[in-house]
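Run log // design_07
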C-alpha cells in the first residue's frame, strides 16, 4: 500500500510539473505574440531641414499684437511632424530702440527688446508641430527706418509605421 501511495504521489507531482510547464510555455508564447503586435510609438525618419526667413520694414496689417511686417505659413503634411529647433527675431537697421517679435498661430515664440535684452523672450525648444497649417507673423516697431528680421530653423520628419 505504501508503495502504491508513493507511486501515485510521484505521478501527481509529474502531472503538476507538466501542467506548470505547459502554462509557462503558453504564457511565453502569448507574451511574444503580444509584444510583437503592440507598439508604443511610431518611428521618425529624417526628411529635410527647413529654414524660414521673414523680413520687413513697413506695416502690412495691424492686429492685437501690433504691426505685422511679414506673414508666412508652415504646412506640415500628413504622415510628417516638424521639430522647431530655434527661432530669432531681431532689429536689423534703423532705430535700435525698437523691438521685433515672432508669433506662431498667435503664440509668441520670440520677442526681442533691443533696449532691454534681459526682457527678451524665446519659447522653450524644441517645439513639435503635428499635421496642420501654421501662420507665422513677424512684428516690428512703427519707428521710421526700422527693419526687422525673423528666422525659424526646423527639421521635418516622416512618420514610419
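design_07 sequence
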Amino acid at each position: 500500500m505504501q508503495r502504491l501511495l508513493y507511486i501515485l504521489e510521484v505521478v501527481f507531482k509529474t502531472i503538476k510539473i507538466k501542467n506548470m510547464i505547459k502554462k509557462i510555455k503558453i504564457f511565453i508564447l502569448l507574451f511574444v505574440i503580444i509584444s510583437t503586435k503592440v507598439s508604443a510609438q511610431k518611428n521618425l525618419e529624417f526628411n529635410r531641414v527647413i529654414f524660414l526667413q521673414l523680413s520687413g520694414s513697413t506695416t502690412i496689417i495691424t492686429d492685437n499684437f501690433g504691426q505685422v511686417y511679414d506673414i508666412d505659413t508652415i504646412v506640415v503634411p500628413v504622415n510628417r511632424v516638424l521639430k522647431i529647433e530655434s527661432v530669432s527675431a531681431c532689429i536689423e537697421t534703423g532705430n535700435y530702440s525698437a523691438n521685433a517679435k515672432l508669433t506662431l498661430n498667435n503664440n509668441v515664440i520670440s520677442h526681442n527688446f533691443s533696449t532691454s535684452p534681459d526682457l527678451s523672450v524665446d519659447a522653450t525648444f524644441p517645439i513639435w508641430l503635428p499635421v496642420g497649417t501654421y501662420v507665422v507673423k513677424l512684428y516690428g516697431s512703427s519707428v521710421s527706418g526700422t527693419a526687422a528680421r525673423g528666422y525659424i530653423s526646423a527639421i521635418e520628419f516622416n512618420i514610419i509605421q
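The mean pLDDT is 82.
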